[in-house]
Structure formats: C-alpha cells, structure tokens
Amino acid sequence: PSPPLTNFDLLVNAAAVKGIQVKCSTNAELAYSLENANIPGDPFFNILLRIVSTRCMMQAVYFCSGMLPEEEYFHYGLAVPMYTHFTSPIRRYPDLLVHRLLAASVGQDKTYTELLDRNIVHEWCENMNYRHHQAQLVQRASIALHTQLYFKDKCLDEDAYILFVRRNAVVVLVRRYGLESTIFLKAVESQVDFVYEEDKCKLTVVELHFRCSTG
C-alpha cells in the first residue's frame, strides 16, 4: 500500500541537509530520486538513504486479486503497477500457492479447486501476512540475541553513520557489522544543554555523556 506522504518528511529533510532533493509524490518519482541521490566520494550515502526510505514505507502484504480493484495490484517499493511472487515453488509457501493457482486457473490441476474461491484465498493471504510478520519478529530477536553474544566482553572502536537525530538521542549504523544502535544523550547538568532542530535533522550539544543500547 501507499504510505502517507508525511511518512517521508524525515527522508526529505535528511537528504536536503546534504543538498539532495528527494521527490516522493509517487513511488516512481521516489525510485528515480533515490537512483540519482549520490555524493561524489561517498558511495555509502545512497545506501543510507535507501535504508531510511524503507522505514518510511508500509509493509507489503499478500492479497487476493479478486478482492481488490486492479489499481491496487501495485508494489510500492519496487515501483511496478502489478506484482506477484513467481520464483521457485520450493522456496516459500506464497510462491507455491501462485503456481497452484495458475495451474487451477488454466484447468491443468484440479487438486486444489478451493483456490478458485476468492474468500478462501483471502483467508489464506491474511494468514500468510500474519505468519510473515511473526517470522520478521523472530528474525529480529535472533539477530539481537546473537549480536549481544558476539559483543559480550568486547570493547571495540568503530566508525558509525548517523541515521536519525532525535531530541535526546542519535541512531547510528556501524557499517562494518551492520549494527544499528541508539545512543541516548543525557546532559551533565540538570538543565537541558542541547538544541534539537527537527526540520534540519540537527542536534547541537554542549556537554553530555553516552549510554549505548543495542537492539
């Protein structure tokens, strides 16, 4: 589905700080902007922008085409008007369903006649969306766990890129390990001694100490 345009405010502002204009009125316009958003001598900048752009999008979902109008068949992230899985049927269940549905539609396989019932397919799509989301949560939890185990009792100095600036924190990406972490900023004195400018993605700090939290 198409995300609200306000979702891209962070991306647009962050790119503007570097003198890059990102247009996002349509998914094709966004794809073109990202393709041409480059800074000479900093090839990783484009990757960072793409990482931020995916955070602005909605989660892609499976659906039964018979339940939605044709203009809803698009894939926003890929900027294509019509999309479905059609890879190896041994790789993932949605691919297997696509192969079975195609065979049933052209009369080559009568084993799964229920695939021609859009209400049943709709229920299966809803279940696949739920299972996919649960699998993502498990994957993230597994990565967080093994990251903690790997860095246990280690103290390393690494360069990091700033992904996001918050009122009291910065979100950084350690490129070498693909590790994303939030560094919380806390004033030494009781009064706040740093200034946050959201529209400029800017945080001006005087005195602080760090508390790093992974995950």
Please tell me about this protein's structure.
- The protein is an alpha+beta fold.
- Helices cover 36% and strands 16% of the residues.
- The chain is built from 5 helices and 6 strands.
- Strands 1-2-3-6 form a 4-stranded antiparallel β-sheet. The protein has a two-stranded antiparallel ribbon with strand order 4-5.
- α1 runs antiparallel to α3.
- The protein is globular, with a radius of gyration of 22 Å.
- The chain starts with 8 loop residues before the first helix and ends with a strand.
- The model has no long low-confidence stretch (mean pLDDT 85).
Largest sheet descriptor: 4 strands, antiparallel
Give the total of beta strands.
6
Secondary structure class reads alpha+beta
Order of helices and strands: HHHHHEEEEEE
Q: For the residues shown, what is the average pLDDT? A: 85
Query: Which strand order do you get reading across the main beta sheet?
Result: 1-2-3-6
Termini distance?
A: 27 Å
> What is the percent of helical residues?
25-40%
How much of the sequence lies in strands comes to 15-25%
How many H/I helices?
Answer: 5
- Rg from C-alpha positions? 22 Å
